[in-house]
Write a structure and sequence with these properties.
By secondary structure, the protein is mainly alpha-helical. The chain is built from 8 helices and no strands. The termini are far apart. Mean pLDDT is 87; it is low at 18-22.
Length: 143
């Protein structure tokens, strides 16, 4: 049931987000890929999740870089590799993926996979805050 709800939500979002209530074939296919990725993650089918995320990233879907980063960070479907995880988070963050910006900031703040670098952490929090991310705004307000 939850799986169907997620799929319907993703497809509906694609339809409404495409303008005038019509979605392009590419948007619908991307929505299906995103839903299949999330279903694979929920089911613990990490090899399949990796394949889907990798294809979406190759097709230019920026958030898929963060999907890949998570898989590499946790060693799900791939051999754990923080260097690749950080690189994927950076690629997504530089392409203005707000969630990746916040996550990358947290890595720099805690020194996970990278050296502790408060200046870089604050840089990425500021980028995310400028994009409206409430957690990033909160983190900056604490400084």
């Amino acid at each position: 049931m939850l799986r169907k709800l997620i799929l319907v939500s993703v497809v509906l979002a694609a339809l409404l987000g495409a303008g005038f209530g019509f979605a392009s074939k590419d948007n619908v296919l991307l929505s299906h890929s995103i839903a299949r990725y999330h279903n694979a993650m929920t089911a613990g089918e990490y090899d399949r999740a990796y394949t889907l995320a990798n294809q979406m990233a190759a097709d230019g879907y920026i958030p898929a870089r963060a999907f890949l980063a998570t898989l590499y960070e946790n060693g799900q479907g791939v051999i754990q590799n923080m260097d690749i995880a950080v690189e994927q988070y950076k690629l997504a963050a530089m392409a203005n993926d707000v969630s990746a910006q916040v996550y990358l900031a947290g890595l720099y703040m805690r020194g996970v996979g990278v050296s502790v670098d408060e200046k870089l952490a604050l840089h990425w929090y500021a980028k995310a805050a400028a994009n409206g991310h409430s957690t990033a705004k909160f983190k900056l307000a604490l400084r």
